[in-house]
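Readers of this paper often ask what the protein records in our data store actually look like. This encoding replaces a full spatial description with a residue-level series of whole-number codes. For reference, a complete record is included directly beneath this paragraph.
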Amino acid sequence: MSAIHIRPADLADDAALRALLREVDMPGWVRMVTTREPSHFAASRRFGDEQTFIGHDGDVPVGMFACATQPLWINGQARTAGYLGALRVRPSYRHRARLLRQGFAVVRQSVPPHALPLWYTAIGSGNHAARRVLEAGLRGLPRYRYLNDLVTLALPARRGRRHGLWQPVPPAALPALCDFHARQASQYQFSPVLHARKALETGANFHAVQHAGQTVACVALWDQRGLQQARALGYATPLARALPLLNAWAHMARRVPLPRVGEPLDHGYAAFLAVAPDCPAPIDVLIEDALAICPTPILSLGLHGAHPWLALLQRRFHPARYATRLYAVGFDDDHALGPRPCQPEVAVM
């Protein structure tokens, strides 16, 4: 077996990284890829500090992964934690446990666990091959401890209706918005710690709802189509044959159509969403109002699998759903997490 060389990627690897993202799919009823066009590294600066690694067999790129340090809420405290993502391995190399061991060894060398003890990652619920390997507790791999599901809802903008609740937030008001967001987001594990400068750097359009002179809700409508894209590589039979009919029905029923093979999902994010308990507007009205002003035909929102909003939003908007499993990744120590639900921001994963 030839040796695989894994090293930090640089700008000279941009084309190879983008090719791996385009060509290596995430299995399931739909084979999806997340691409970063036209630049891999431009998308890596959305939130936190990301470093990408690439593996070569000789001169052939065979895999990649990324690790990002992010400011997150952990047990109600602002902490720095690590996110492991963008793991892509060409199919002919996926069963080489040694390759995974090499990759995780590189993570340990790059960011020592004692300096950053807490890591998390997400695996698609339908990606059974990856789950079997990473959940197996193989020697030389970190321990993957399941936390909870994260459900991403793809909400159709055609179901929006303007209520005039969401108002744009000017840059000067971002510090106050971030203070409000912190009070709500700190109730969850792995939710983002948002600062005014970082909020401004995202380029997202921040909005807030005011009641009695106080902020009672905030959201960022974040169109990332110029940075990264979700594309379908193929569908399971017989769904592939029925796709034109299903999409015709989806159009008439105001539901989310499935993208044709090779085409991107035309979506943006309802990012950094936070709602105070005393907000007078119910969540379905807030979402309906956000859909009316979002710049994309589809608005994606991530909620933990037991979130009380899920059933209502499913019934009211009939979104498409994508479920992932969240894991704490333990290298040496397994950081103690309290009972709060884990809800990272899907727009920065």
Observations:
- The longest helix spans residues 239-253.
